[in-house]
Amino acid sequence: MEAPSKLSSTSLFQVYLRLRPPPSPLVTLTQQSLYPLLPPPERWLTVEPPIREVQDGMPTHIMLNPPSDSRKRAIEKFAFTKVFEEQAEQIDIFRETGVVPLVEGVIGEGRDGLLATLGVTGSGKSHTILGSKSQRGLTQLSLDLLYRSLDNCTLQPSSHPSLIVSLAATDTSESQILSASTFLDSVYGDGLQESNRSRAPTPMIDSNYTPSAPKRRLPQRPSALPHFPDISDISVPAVSNAEYAIVVSMYEVYNDRIFDLLAVPSNQKDLRRRHLLFKSTEGSPNRKVVAGLRKVVCGSYEEALVVLETGLIERRVAGTGSNSVSSRSHGFFCVEVKKRPRGGMASSWTGATLTIVDLAGSERARNAKTAGATLAEAGKINESLMYLGQCLQMQSDSQDGMKPSLVPFRQCKLTELLFCNSFPSPSHHSIHQTHHHRNAQKAIMIVTADPLGDFNATSQILRYSALAREVTVPRIPSVSSTIFGGTAGRVPSGQTSPTAATHTDEAVVEMAFSEIARLNEEVEILNVRLAAEEGRRKEAEENWQRAEERAEAIEIEIREECWSEMERRLDEERRRWMGAWGEEADRNDEHLDRKLEILSKGIQIHEDPIDQTAYTAELETENETLRCKLEALERELQCRSPTKSPKKAKVPSLNLSDIRVAAGSDSGNGTLASAFQKLNGLDLTEPAECRSLGKTPGKKIRKLTARRWDLMDENEMDAFENY
Ligand SMILES: Nc1ncnc2c1ncn2[C@@H]1O[C@H](COP(=O)(O)OP(=O)(O)OP(=O)(O)O)[C@@H](O)[C@H]1O
Predict the structure, then answer these.
(1) Which of 104, 614, 658, 709 matches a 20 to 30 Å C-alpha distance to 583?
(2) Strands 13-19 and 442-449
(3) Can you give the pTM of this predicted structure?
(4) Which atom of ligand 1 is nearest to the CA of 323?
(5) How far apart are the C-alpha atoms of 535 and 542, rounded to whole Å?
């Protein structure tokens, strides 16, 4: 196996391993009394002694001896930059992990720094990064180092009123920049003035988490926070002739979404948290940033601590089977160190960021005894850590420097945030602005492991985080040797298997067992993901069902509405039609009445003036003709019945003078009418006579007139009547 020093020079991360000390005797006793049947934990991890000349007196390799359960696995050996054993203190980690050079790079070189902890749940990540009631963590120690190193050069928002505005003007992440006093006042109000608060434990919020409403109580006064270990002897040089501003922001990645931890709700309506995007902005086209964060300018170490505590309260933590205060999200604490020449232009800020990450712990669903939302969270956590593992494995596999395209960091938010800015950015010149070349980020990963904890989960983490890995054949009797021993026993007598070949086979079998173990781990992770997916599918199905029911209800409602609307319109139409029909009938009746009225009034005939003499002569001729016809008819009748002399038809005598009078006088209509009546009274059955009678001018006029009435409209009738 290659020396870690050689490996780490080409890696993106320096990877350190910290072993967690066993729980206190009291905790062990309690556990034993609670679970008396549980076998005492077995230590399955051994630290290889350091090679003094090469490794600076610190161990770098560990060996995993799988516990003696039914599944026998290969012995694996892992290499790290350094290994810290159980007795290591916070100060040792701070001094020996390269946190100091990291802070130095941020202040002096303008190089971004990343410090992260990775491990199984309960292995001591939060303890390392955030400390405990009595000890400071790496975050507090880094802040302390930073503020003390920049002691005289840090600008205070209270004494530099234009500071916030000038920082906001150069900020590229669309953030809201506030001074610490403004921020804390908005969260705690007068609470900051209150004294004698007892220290609350590190945030403990149960899984039914809801962000609390303002104005809340200050969790802890800075003076009550631990001051141990002391690092007053350590400092890093600041750039002379430069002035600094320190801007703090905090966010968490929960269920693959980014949430601002400092955007504390200002009223009850704001309790729903809005997730933020990790993207390139207008001011930062070639570098992704978390856009829209709330950033707080902290003028002192104490202010920064209170802001940190405030953000931690917002972070998701829950009690699981493995840890009573388990982080359910990946927490990011960012310290931007802004720098400009002393008394320089407002817009001349440059700087670098120190990002400290407390990753959520991976865990096996079986051990964690989680369910529902917490199980789904665990699925997301394990998934993101699996992607992180893939990225880390890439760096340990690739020895020839890293190309960004080789690291599959775009698979989830966590790896994107951790790796996206790990590579140096090319300098970019645009018409409007020049984007400065950025150095590659320096990164430190502290892997925490409990040698008495869950072997499978821990070995999985170690496998992908270690800088190098070696699988060795165990010297102790193993499953493979048992198998081969058994097989050898069954070999027919006289045939012996060669020992060298058996050793090779044993190695292959052990490798296979190791692979099976790894695959089992993956299966477990996939099972958790499957459970989460199934939960989501069930939820989606329920939503779908609800949506369908709602759609059905809406359809029924709309149908009913349409139906009633149609009925209403039909009714309206029917009424309108009935009205029109009634009116029409009335009009017809009236029309008929008026016709009848006109008829009853009599027919007024306008006759053309005629030549009296000619007319009289004509009538006389006609009269004569009729008389002749009559006589002819009488004769005919007599001829038909010679015995019975027929009764002489009584022919009304048509008085010619009557006709003459009627024709001559204007008012003689009545007389003329009676003359015609007499004429009509004649029993003229002969069609010829009838035809000749029908041809009389009077009859013709009457017929024509009657037909014209039928065709007349109201106005014409009125005109006719008046006429
Ligand atoms: N080096 C250590 N020294 C003393 N106590 C420790 C150490 N490491 C961890 N512990 C204790 O172990 C418990 C669990 O540790 P911690 O909460 O840091 O685990 P974690 O890895 O952050 O878990 P999770 O991922 O669930 O948040 C805590 O009570 C902590 O005080």
Answers:
(1) 709
(2) parallel
(3) 0.63
(4) 26
(5) 11
